[in-house]
Design a protein that fits this description.
Blueprint (H helix, E strand, L loop, with lengths): L4 H9 L2 E6 L1 H5 L13 H4 L2 H4 L2 H6 L1 H17 L4 H12 L2 E6 L5 H5 L4 E3 L2 E8 L27 E5 L8 H13 L2 E5 L10 H8 L3 E6 L5 E3 L2 E5 L2 H12 L3
Parallel strand pairs: 1-2, 1-6, 2-3, 6-7, 7-9
Antiparallel strand pairs: 4-5, 8-9
The structure holds adenosine-5-diphosphoribose.
Adenosine-5-diphosphoribose binds next to α2 and α11.
Length: 246
């Protein structure tokens, strides 16, 4: 795969790189995206019922079981070459921040360290009343979702649902990373949900080169803006190879 040599040069000289990822990066690990017209999660399931506080209130069992199914899917999945390339990029670049909207933890499993999780992590569980993280709980068929061992409220996945606030510290760190980078990559996200739409713009305003990589955008390479129609599992490793040939 051919990578634009101007982008390669910018990466080689960058002191600070920030990457924003979305579901597209995990698609090649077999985890469905959200907005694909055929196979996307929200084409098959109703987000209002499954990923909102109101949906949880209406049918907590359904929501818990749906997340349990997704957790299983994620546990069986493996990081793909796109995840691995991002971990490699972190080792190569002086300052590197990975902002992700994914809740699957695959970036960390691939070796990424400086990861800002904007939408939480499906592997963690919190108390729906206290908001505290819970590590152990009793399970039985009659109590689904399980109850908080401290206060008895339902447990829930530690993810951000529709209508909920994003974690403040993560959001602040994401803005700072967007505004201080030389190169910003937006990979595998449709950019429909905030702040994914605004972060690349903030980076651009602050003077960074911005490249958007997904399967929606038409090819357009006009520095400082690049939009690249490619699969992240192919493009990201090709970028790293082009910048640091071994
Ligand atoms: N490589 C690169 N991009 C891909 C690939 C791939 N192999 N497969 C799909 N894509 C792109 C699609 O072209 C699309 O632009 O990934 C994007 C996926 O978009 P969405 O399904 O909207 O996922 P995302 O942007 O992560 O959604 C953001 O919305 O529903 C909420 O909380 C959910 O975190 C999610 C947020």
């Amino acid at each position: 795969m051919k990578i634009d040599h101007r982008l390669v040069k910018i990466l080689q000289h960058a002191q600070s790189v920030t990457v924003l990822t979305g579901a597209g990066v995990s698609a090649e690990s077999g985890i469905p995206t959200f907005r694909d017209a055929q196979t996307g999660m929200w084409a098959t399931f109703n987000p209002e019922e499954l990923a909102s506080p109101e949906g949880f209130q209406r049918n907590p069992r359904l929501v818990w079981e749906w997340y349990a199914w997704r957790r299983e899917l994620v546990q069986q999945a493996q990081p793909n070459p796109g995840h691995v390339a991002l971990a490699e990029l972190e080792r190569r670049v002086p300052r590197f921040t990975l902002i992700t909207q994914n809740v699957d933890g695959l970036h960390q499993r691939a070796g990424s360290q400086n990861v800002i999780e904007l939408h939480g992590n499906i592997g963690r569980v919190t108390c729906s009343a206290e908001g505290t993280q819970v590590h152990e709980w009793a399970t039985s068929d009659d109590t689904v979702p399980p109850r908080c061992p401290n206060c008895g409220a339902f447990l829930r996945p530690d993810v951000v649902w529709f209508g909920e606030m994003l974690p403040r510290e993560a959001l602040q760190a994401a803005w700072a990373a967007a505004e201080m980078c030389d190169l910003f990559l937006s990979v595998g996200t449709s950019g429909v949900v905030e702040p994914a739409a605004s972060l690349p713009r903030a980076a651009r305003h602050a003077g960074a080169t911005v490249a958007v990589i997904n399967l929606d955008v038409p090819e357009q390479n006009q520095p400082p803006l690049f939009s690249i129609h490619a699969r992240s599992g192919e493009w990201l490793p090709a970028l790293v190879r082009a910048a640091w040939p071994t």
